Amino acid sequence: MGFFTAARQGRRDDAELGTGVWRRAHDRFRRGLDRYHQILEGVADDEVYNQLAGLANELVPLLERVRTVCVTAQASSPSEGLDIPGALTPVHRALSRAGNSLATTAEAAAMARLDGERWGLASAGLDNVKRRADLVEEDIAEAERELAARPNV
């Protein structure tokens, strides 16, 4: 991404996500997704790479869902600081869990990569990565449900 493109995206993010908790939740998820993709770069085993890349393809669309939740939350309960708007605490909690789940998914992918390279035990590690990736999706679905359950949203 070029300098001017990044600057434009930053201004768009400020306008849509604000600078508070919704922006932080979105950016944390994006960083977790970037980290997962960085782990893919070093995978030498083709089978492990293909399976981890398949999971990455399932994780990528989740960023747009997180963004939609965060944009909607910012529009209904703006945040410019560290205080979580009370009515949307469950939404923020679910988004935080999604970010944590994504971080542990990346961690599990790194371990699967190491296991595959050292011992040829990729399948056990890949099952763990898949379970953790499923938790990410469940956390986002919960954030979406919580947001939909709130009046005036």
What report would you give on this structure?
The protein is mostly helical. The chain has one domain (3-148): Four Helix Bundle (Hemerythrin (Met), subunit A). The protein has 5 helices and no strands. It has helices at residues 3-17, 21-41, 46-76, 89-118, 122-148. Helix 3 packs antiparallel against helix 4 (89-118). The radius of gyration is 17 Å and the shape is elongated. The two termini are 33 Å apart. The model has no long low-confidence stretch (mean pLDDT 88).
**Radius of gyration (Å):** 17 Å
Largest sheet: none
Q: Count every helix, treating DSSP H or I runs of 4 or more residues as helices.
A: 5
CATH topology: Four Helix Bundle (Hemerythrin (Met), subunit A)
Total DSSP E strands = 0
- Quickly count the domains: 1
Low-confidence stretches: none
Quaternary structure classification: single chain
Q: What is the correct CATH architecture?
A: Up-down Bundle
Tell me, what's the shape? Answer: elongated
Q: Name the helix and strand elements from N-terminus to C-terminus, one letter apiece.
A: HHHHH
Could you report the average pLDDT, rounded to the nearest whole number? 88
Distance between the termini: 33 Å
Strand content: under 5%
Helix content: over 70%
